[in-house]
């Protein structure tokens, strides 16, 4: 499963991430919001082409799980053939829950009800995170387009046992096992 957040309309960054989807053999694509628009506080990214991003993602609509980011709107939904307006979603992995959200409403300081061993996957900050905090996995793949905090562009990967944040060179920037030791 490949996790992408904060594409912000860059077809260039999306294609790099999708190359990794193929290399890693990922069947599912989890989009954690801010898909098409760059947002008023961000610079216009390299390869800014929201329509091309929507068209490319629509090719994979049958394998996408997406949530709404603070830059996503009903107009964006008109371009996408998969639902993008849910504020959050849930995955059940090995009998435990993983909450998917963008991070602007629910975030590490405002978590939904989670049991010990559950996980919280979010974007919004553009900062890579993969760590356990108080018996909850916190996972943020960073941003493929506009990394912040001195980080490089990154995406997330879940291989069934480990959540990893990776850069486009294939280096692991952060990782955490899904099974808490």
UniProtKB/TrEMBL annotation:
InterPro entries: Calcineurin-like_PHP_lpxH (IPR024654), Metallo-depent_PP-like (IPR029052), MPP_YfcE (IPR041802), Phosphodiesterase_MJ0936/Vps29 (IPR000979). Transmembrane segments: none annotated. Residues 2-158 form the Calcineurin-like phosphoesterase domain. The keyword Cell cycle does not apply. Gene3D superfamilies: 3.60.21.10. It is an enzyme of class 3 (hydrolase). Keywords: Metal-binding. Its EC number is 3.1.4.-. Its cofactor is a divalent metal cation. Belongs to the metallophosphoesterase superfamily. YfcE family. This is Phosphoesterase. The gene is yfcE.
């Amino acid at each position: 499963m490949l996790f992408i957040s904060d594409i912000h309309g860059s077809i260039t960054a999306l294609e790099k991430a999708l190359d990794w989807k193929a290399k890693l053999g990922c069947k599912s694509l989890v989009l954690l919001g801010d898909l098409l628009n760059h947002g008023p506080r961000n610079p216009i990214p390299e390869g800014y082409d929201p329509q091309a991003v929507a068209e490319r993602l629509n090719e994979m609509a049958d394998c996408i799980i997406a949530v709404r980011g603070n830059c996503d709107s009903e107009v964006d939904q008109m371009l996408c053939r998969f639902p993008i307006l849910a504020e959050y979603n849930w995955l059940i992995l090995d009998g435990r829950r993983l909450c998917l959200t963008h991070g602007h409403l629910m975030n590490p300081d405002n978590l939904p009800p989670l049991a010990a061993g559950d996980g919280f996957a979010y974007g919004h900050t553009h900062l890579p995170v993969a760590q356990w905090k108080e018996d909850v996995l916190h996972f943020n793949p960073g941003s493929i387009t506009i990394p912040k905090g001195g980080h490089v562009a990154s995406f997330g990967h879940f291989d069934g046992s480990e959540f990893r944040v990776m850069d486009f060179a294939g280096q692991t920037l952060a990782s955490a096992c899904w099974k808490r030791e």
